[in-house]
Design brief:
globular; 5-stranded antiparallel sheet; about 950 residues; 5 helices; about 45% strand; mainly beta; single chain
Length: about 950
């Protein structure tokens, strides 16, 4: 579900509605037949601006084809002209859905019609008030149920294998259900052992200790109890528990855990695996949460890091930086060597996302907004629920389903299914579940608690929509068959274009969840019997559960299946059955080999500007190299701006570059300042506020000012000198478009846009105008051969110090400015590196020399720096990882315990970094790769 939590900075605007054909939007009544009408209302949908959403910085437009019923109800939508950004397209489609329309009336009859809707995304638009939920017209709306209805034919009953009720082993387990003195905190099972937590147990364990209990379901015996850990998952080797340090008991169990805590210096919980037979810790797993285990591989998460580890040895097989604030929700699904993991990204908007990882290597292939687990598969296509939050809040409760290419993440199509426009009752519409399956070329979707069928990957109106009447779909199988029930009868159904043939196999309704074993066998209780289903809908009776008043859970493992029976607050009763084990398909994972180097980090904390909690922390901006191997950084604060000199050993000297502003008078009733960067209320400050810093000859630093068209020099002795090199603008943020660059010969250059585009030396000794065909410089840098480079709105230009301009041919990805200017750095031998999202280009005067893609396609390049050996250091935005691209084109990955906002190389080849926002502390430091 996608939840809008607060207002943002951007908006999608419905700009124009253009009929796909004639202007056929009819009046809402029939006083004048055939009279055309316009839309009844426009609605503005807020789109918060969040870096994780990768929203562009310029206006874009999405064109959406909308199919509207004669009653003005949106039946389907399809993007016919993309904005180039999937998130903008998603919000555009939602904006179209939440608008109100009047249907087309011809001769007093409602007629469906199509519209082409142009949706404008404007990042600078005034943020509107969040939209209200749409109310329904007071007049009754006829049902839009698809017709004609499908033929439902009662076929022969399924010939089930001979069945003799097994004398199931029945025993009482030391496990209370739901609530009471022994309430469950966590429960997991694997290999026939049930693991669970107990609160306020009679053994005297406190609620804080969360004792873990292991029960052998084959014998009913309690194998062991441990005081510490919250059950997070289980596998064949044991149980994974989350341990919150300090836990002296757990530290005593294993030296690995002690070493882990000492190395990470973190109070957060860690995952450790307990032996299935003894409960003793085996090893510590990477991460703080687990999503499940498949075929001896445990999948765990720690923030944005998603890992695969061996459950037998604890060895890390691979680690991947998936996305910011990765919150995996359910066990992963594997298809065609692609691992699909559902997750939640929390921020101003809570987004449900589906991540696709390459199973052998762990490289993130793509990400897609998606609710819940995949709905089905066909060859190399996965079907997902892409319904956005406002649609789910609508009374009509439509469902949007997208067909996505597994290998690339490309959407083949996306349709919204809305077969029944009649609303649910106001008091229960939010409880009506959105469910769907896609199987064997058909989409099955429930709306208003009734199931419908469509032909997959067609416009809904042309997809032969039919109603399944009173049937409810419980599951689908690989061969297209369905598990359905109706009026106390349960069937296997065979679907064909004109009919649904039912084969009864059980009396009684579904009484349990449908549980899937690792080999694909599914189990469920219908009436008084436990049934098993193979992947092609083959049905077997497993045993009688007549004595099970409430089937609380089904636990299946190799050769066995147990049904847990019980009611709230009472001990559970186990019914144990023998059941044949099926073949288990092994996962194919290539363990990642460690890189030939280890990353050595030196970190120096930037001292605060004052003891005031509100103004006590600097915002660290750009940096410049110093001849002694250190760096200079800009420090921005609400009350003062400075330059900080940092020596190679970490010693710091601050030089103010703006007069200090007196802090505000303390409030008599102060509100605790929230964790985060300061709120800047005294802007613009009295003095320059730089966003670029470069080093020139004899230790002089040069910086610009985001508020004025000036450049300022700072001598080693602390002397400041400012001069204007451009002209202002009426636009508040456009008066300071002054770019700076330095070249190896020590010269500092500026590039400006106003009053005329121009490049010149900072000392004023040389300048030349930029010809109009090359545009205004947006990104400016110096090359290793003393030439200058700049990106304009649509081109890359190389400029010699004599004013000779050469335009460089670029791939379309680098000329598309909808996602902002590229990230750039200077390369060796007169080349540069430029990156757009996850793609990095090596460029020379003749054009692109090489192209590289980050191993994780979900990441975007945040900063780059070249090493003295010609290699490239890359840090993605908002991620604790460093990539090292060696000259042979191979990426090496190194984890960093924080995210990095900027990196650069000093003259002595040291790689310096600035730590990303980590209020209330910020640090700078060095990276060094040391041979193992």
């Amino acid at each position: 579900m996608h939840m809008i939590a607060k207002a943002g900075l951007c908006a999608l605007l419905l700009a124009a509605f253009v009929p796909a054909g004639k202007a056929l939007i009819g009046a809402g009544g029939c006083a004048v037949p055939n009279k055309d009408a316009t839309l009844q209302a426009l609605r503005v949908i807020p789109v918060p601006h969040i870096p994780q959403l990768k929203l562009p910085r310029q206006k874009t437009e999405t064109q959406v084809l909308v199919h509207i019923s004669g009653y003005g109800v949106v039946m389907s939508t399809k993007v016919v002209k993309s904005s180039g950004n999937p998130f903008v397209d998603l919000h555009a489609m939602s904006s179209v859905h939440m608008s109100t329309y009047s249907g087309k009336i011809v001769n007093c009859q409602p007629i469906p019609s199509d519209l082409t809707v142009n949706v404008l995304y404007d990042p600078n638009a005034r943020q509107p008030t969040p939209f209200p939920m749409r109310s329904l017209p007071p007049t009754p709306v006829p049902s839009g149920e698809p017709a004609p209805p499908i033929q439902i034919i009662q076929g022969a009953a399924l010939p089930l294998p001979a069945y003799v009720a097994q004398p199931a082993a029945k025993r009482t387990l030391p496990l209370a259900l739901f609530s009471g003195n022994y309430g469950n905190l966590g429960m997991a099972s694997a290999g026939g052992i049930l693991y669970f937590n107990i609160i306020n147990s009679p053994e005297g364990f406190s609620a804080e200790s969360h004792p873990v209990v292991a029960v052998d379901l084959s014998t009913g015996a309690v194998l062991w109890r441990r005081r510490s850990g919250i059950v997070a998952g289980a596998n064949q080797a044991g149980v994974i528990v989350s341990v919150a340090p300090p836990e002296s008991e757990m530290r005593a169990y294993t030296r690995d855990l002690t070493a882990y805590l000492r190395a990470h210096k973190s109070p957060k919980s860690v995952l450790t695996e307990l032996d299935r037979k003894t409960g003793r810790p085996l090893f510590v797993l990477p991460g703080t949460g687990t999503t499940g285990a498949i075929d001896g591989v445990a999948f765990t998460q720690d923030g944005s890091i998603y890992s695969a580890s061996s459950v037998a040895t604890g060895k890390l097989l691979w680690a991947s930086n998936g996305a910011p604030s990765l919150g995996a929700q359910e066990p992963p699904v594997v298809r065609n060597d692609v691992l699909l993991q559902t997750a939640t990204i929390s921020g101003a908007i809570t987004e449900n996302v589906l991540y696709a990882f390459d199973l052998p290597t762990g490289h993130a292939k793509w990400e897609m907004l998606s609710n819940e687990k995949p709905l089905g598969f066909k060859s190399n296509v996965v079907y997902i629920d892409s319904t956005w939050f406002p649609q789910r809040m609508d009374y009509y409760i439509p469902m949007t389903i997208a067909a996505v290419d597994l290998a690339t993440g490309t959407k083949r199509d996306e349709y919204t299914y809305r077969p029944d426009p009649i609303p649910n009752a106001a008091e229960d519409y939010r409880q009506a579940p959105l469910m769907a399956y896609v199987s064997s070329g058909y989409v099955y979707v429930t709306v208003n608690n009734r199931w419908y069928r469509y032909v997959a990957e067609r416009e809904p109106a042309q997809a032969a929509p039919v109603s399944l009447g009173s049937l409810s779909v419980d599951a689908t199988f690989e061969n297209g068959r369905l598990l359905v029930h109706e009026n106390q009868g349960t069937y296997i159904a065979e679907s064909s274009p004109d009919r649904l043939q039912l084969h009864r196999f059980a009396e009684g309704d579904l009484r349990s969840k449908i549980v899937e074993r690792e080999d694909g066998t599914r189990y469920a209780v219908f009436g008084g019997t436990l049934y098993a289903f193979d992947q092609n809908a083959g049905v077997r009776r497993v045993g009688s559960v007549e004595n099970c008043a409430s089937a609380y859970s089904i636990i299946a493992w190799s050769g066995h299946v147990a049904v847990l029976c019980g009611t709230a607050g009472q001990s559970a009763t186990e019914l144990l059955f023998n059941d044949k084990a099926e073949r288990i398909v092994a996962l194919h994972i290539t363990p990642q080999t460690p890189p030939p180097y280890r990353l050595q980090i030196r970190e120096f904390q930037v001292p605060g500007s004052s003891a005031d909690g509100r103004t006590g922390q600097w915002g660290v901006g750009p940096m410049a190299p110093l001849s002694n191997g250190g760096i200079a950084i800009t420090l921005v604060n609400e009350l003062k701006n400075s330059i900080m000199y940092v020596s190679p050993g970490g010693k710091m000297r601050r030089v103010p570059i703006a007069p200090e502003i007196a802090p505000p008078t303390p409030n008599a009733n102060p509100t605790p300042y929230p964790t985060g960067p300061p709120i800047f209320s005294n802007w613009p400050p009295r003095g320059p506020s730089p966003n670029q810093l470069v080093a020139g000859k004899r230790g002089t630093l040069w910086f610009n000012d985001v508020w004025h068209p000036d450049i300022t020099s700072l001598s080693p002795g602390g002397t400041l000198a400012t001069r204007a090199v451009g002209a202002g603008s009426n636009a508040r943020f456009s008066s300071a478009i002054i770019r700076l660059a330095s070249t190896p010969d020590g010269e500092v250059w500026y590039a400006r846009s106003l009053p005329t585009p121009q490049i010149g030396r900072a000392d004023g000794s040389l300048k030349f105008d930029i010809p109009a065909q090359y545009g205004n410089p947006a990104v400016f840098l110096g090359g290793s051969d003393n030439a200058l480079w700049f990106f304009s709105a649509a081109s890359l230009v190389r400029v010699t110090t004599r004013g000779q301009f050469t335009s460089i041919a670029l791939p379309s990805k680098l000329t598309d400015r909808r996602t902002g200017p590229p990230v750039v750095t200077s390369g060796s031998r007169g080349t540069i590196w430029a990156a757009e999202r996850e793609t990095i280009y090596h460029i020379g005067s003749a054009g692109v020399l090489g192209e590289h893609t980050l191993p994780d396609a979900t990441l975007s390049v945040g900063a780059m720096a070249t090493g003295c050996d010609g290699s490239l250091y890359v840090t993605p935005g908002y991620q604790g990882v460093l990539f090292h691209l060696r000259p042979n084109g191979v990426f090496e990955r190194y984890q960093v315990p924080f995210y990095v906002s900027n990196i650069m190389r000093a003259p002595d080849c040291t790689i310096w970094f600035v730590q990303g926002t980590n209020y209330p502390t910020t640090s700078v430091g060095t990276f060094k790769l040391v041979p193992r």
